[in-house]
Amino acid sequence: MKMNKMEEIWMIVAIVIIVIAMSITGYQAFAMGMSPPSHKEHIDPQTVEEHPEFSEPGVYETGDNEYEVIMTLQAFQFEPSEISVPEGAEVTFRMATKDVVHGVNVPHTNLNTMVIPGYIQEITQTFNEAGEYIMVCNEYCGTGHQMMSATITVEE
Ligand code: CUA
């Protein structure tokens, strides 16, 4: 096959770029373990309230300065909507939605995820600074979306 010299050079450049990009992504995913914060736990969104874990949303102490927040989401509220933990606590949020996709974001922290119907979402955050944090839904979920929020109080 006869090919123009420039065409040949650019084809090689394109292949090299693709190989480099795939190697970086592959290294991050497999060697560094970077992946989305999800662990494929299923839940029936229609029966979240009857689920043994999610029937009683709340804040539970699970260890030495370790807490678990069992949270349900629905248009347009987080339950519990007032969370209180001590400073430095490692808080694991286990969340399930009863209706549509909701977002969970606590500004100025790394806590930012989606909660999708049918899946249990888990995300851990350590709150090192005392104060009041706001948790907002950042995924449009209906006419009351902008009112969907909760507060996290980190006590000294
Ligand atoms: Cu829930 Cu927007």
UniProtKB/TrEMBL annotation:
- Name the species this protein comes from: Lacicoccus qingdaonensis
Task: Answer yes or no on keyword Cytoplasm.
Answer: no
This chain's function reads: Subunits I and II form the functional core of the enzyme complex. Electrons originating in cytochrome c are transferred via heme a and Cu(A) to the binuclear center formed by heme a3 and Cu(B).
In terms of SUPFAM superfamilies, this protein maps to: Cupredoxins (SSF49503)
Q: What sequence ranges are listed for the domain Cytochrome oxidase subunit II copper A binding?
A: 62-156
According to UniProt, the reaction catalysed is: 4 Fe(II)-[cytochrome c] + O2 + 8 H(+)(in) = 4 Fe(III)-[cytochrome c] + 2 H2O + 4 H(+)(out)
Keyword presence, Transmembrane: yes
According to the UniProt record, one GO cellular component term is: membrane
Q: What is this protein called?
A: Cytochrome aa3 subunit 2
Q: Which residues cross the membrane?
A: 9-30
One Pfam family recorded for the sequence:
COX2
Top-rank taxon of the source lineage equals Bacteria
Keywords for the protein's UniProt record, in alphabetical order: Copper, Membrane, Metal-binding, Transmembrane, Transmembrane helix
Compartments annotated for it: namely: Cell envelope
InterPro entries listed in its UniProt record: Ba3_CcO_II_C, CcO_II-like_C, Copper_CuA, Cupredoxin, NosZ/Cyto_c_oxidase_sub2
